[in-house]
Specification:
nine-stranded mixed beta sheet; two-stranded antiparallel ribbon; 8 helices; 13 strands; about 35% helix
């Protein structure tokens, strides 16, 4: 990166302990953005709509990271017995920010929990616990292996954004989740599934870069996985182009 070249500003969502004492995010997320020539900014949970709008205007892209579970009241359900920790402040902040970023036509990349809150923000819903709420046999989606290990395959829709970025119609991905998207709204489309039928990736139907992955490409990018690196580079490139278009 040459001197004077402006990197796109990427808002990175954060997690928080249930006792609400501190924010945190995996360094792998930050490294993946930096390595792809983006400037990551860790985001606190704002509540004021004016502040969130100002934040959206300043960001060139939004990166929705993984984390805890999502409040099922947001999609019209009562809490299931297998529901884990929820952080209402995070849910509220991310829902408002996602919708504003989409209104502004700015790129979004979402991973794990991120793909679920993205889907809910646009009117979809999800399984609170895939093992309790799906009656067919499932593959292992909570791998017993190092976090960067690609544990199962997904089939990628030909011609999709994910296909264009990776050049692959079949990817091997890591997997650490017990929740997953169920109903997908018309503003999104499914672009990858696991062999058991689980929705593994969704993307926007318009021209804006909107991509959500159920796995954790940040961990695989750290190990130089070509497909994962291509996803982050494609996201940052879209942010650069969006930034240039504003000038």
């Amino acid at each position: 990166m040459g001197v004077g070249v402006v990197q796109p500003i990427i808002g990175v969502t954060t997690a928080m302990e249930i006792n609400e004492e501190w924010y945190f995010v995996s360094p792998d997320n930050i490294e993946a953005i930096v390595r792809s020539e983006g400037l990551p900014i860790m985001l606190p949970y704002l509540t004021d709509y004016v502040q969130i709008n100002d934040l959206a205007n300043k960001l060139d892209g939004l990166y929705l990271t993984g984390g805890g579970d999502i409040d099922p009241i947001l999609f019209g359900e009562q809490p299931h017995q297998q529901l884990g920790d929820v952080m209402p402040a995070r849910d509220h902040f991310e829902l408002v920010l996602i919708r504003r970023m989409i209104e502004l036509g700015k790129p979004i990349l979402a991973v794990c929990r991120g793909v679920q809150i993205l889907n809910i923000a646009l009117g979809g819903d999800m399984y609170q616990d895939i093992y309790a709420q799906i009656d067919r046999e499932l593959i292992q989606h909570q791998q017993q292996a190092p976090k960067y290990h690609p544990s199962h395959h997904v089939t990628v829709a030909k011609g999709s954004l994910l296909h264009q970025l990776t050049g692959k119609e079949r990817l091997r991905v890591n997997s650490r989740h017990h929740q997953a998207n169920r109903k997908i709204p018309s503003s999104l489309k499914i672009c990858a599934k696991a062999e058991d039928g689980m929705i593994e990736a969704i993307e926007g139907v318009g021209g804006t870069f909107i991509l959500g992955l159920q796995w954790h490409p940040e961990n695989m990018a750290k190990k130089n996985d070509p497909a994962s690196l291509a996803i982050y580079r494609g996201f940052i490139q879209a942010c650069k182009e969006r930034r240039s278009a504003e000038k």
